[in-house]
Amino acid sequence: MNFVHRQKADLPGFQIAPMLDIVFNLLFFAMISQIFAQWEMEIQVKVPTAKTGEIIDRLPGEVILNIQKDGRVIVNRQELDDNGLRSILARIVRMFPGQPVLIRADRETPYAHVIRVLDLCRQCDIYNISFATSASEET
User: Fold this and answer.
1) Residue-wise pLDDT tens for the chain (139 aa)?
2) Please, what is the Cα angle at 104 between 100 and 110, to 5 degrees?
3) String of b and e for 85-124 (b: at least 16 CB within 10 Å)?
């Protein structure tokens, strides 16, 4: 006579706590990455439009040089003169050769200011340079 009844082991049900942890981690990651992506876009620079202009994915470690209408250059929310910009670019090239640089010049910026910044990049041996444009307003 077998008086010991074997009970079937209950299978664990759906665990909601680990699922909530994952959802909250994804939510925090999305919020934080969005904040970092918009820091450079807060600067009041209206880039010119181009028929083929599009928002491209930023390259890892890309340096953004914002050129205002009056020729002021802003990098990481710091206004820099030519000597300051040259020293930062030279330091970046020493640490990371081939560093990509994105130039965001306002559409009303005189051409001479853009050439001045390009010349500073050339003096520091930066050749991976791209220019920011926005999509055409007609499309």
Assistant:
1) 566 666 766 777 778 888 889 998 888 877 776 655 554 554 566 666 666 655 556 555 678 888 888 888 988 888 889 999 999 999 988 888 888 888 888 888 888 998 999 999 999 988 888 887 776 655 4
2) 125
3) bbebbeebbeeeeebbbbbbbbeebeeebbeebbebbeeb
Q: Where are the alpha helices (DSSP H) in 1-70?
A: 16-38
The structural architecture, per CATH, of the domain 44-135 is 2-Layer Sandwich (3.30)
- Distance, CA of 93 to CA of 124 (rounded, Å): 7
Q: What is the CA radius of gyration of the chain?
A: 26
Q: Residue 124: in which H helix or E strand, if any? A: none
Please give the structure tokens belonging to residue 68: 């205002």
The single-letter code of the amino acid at 122 is R
Alpha helices, H only, 39-110: 82-95
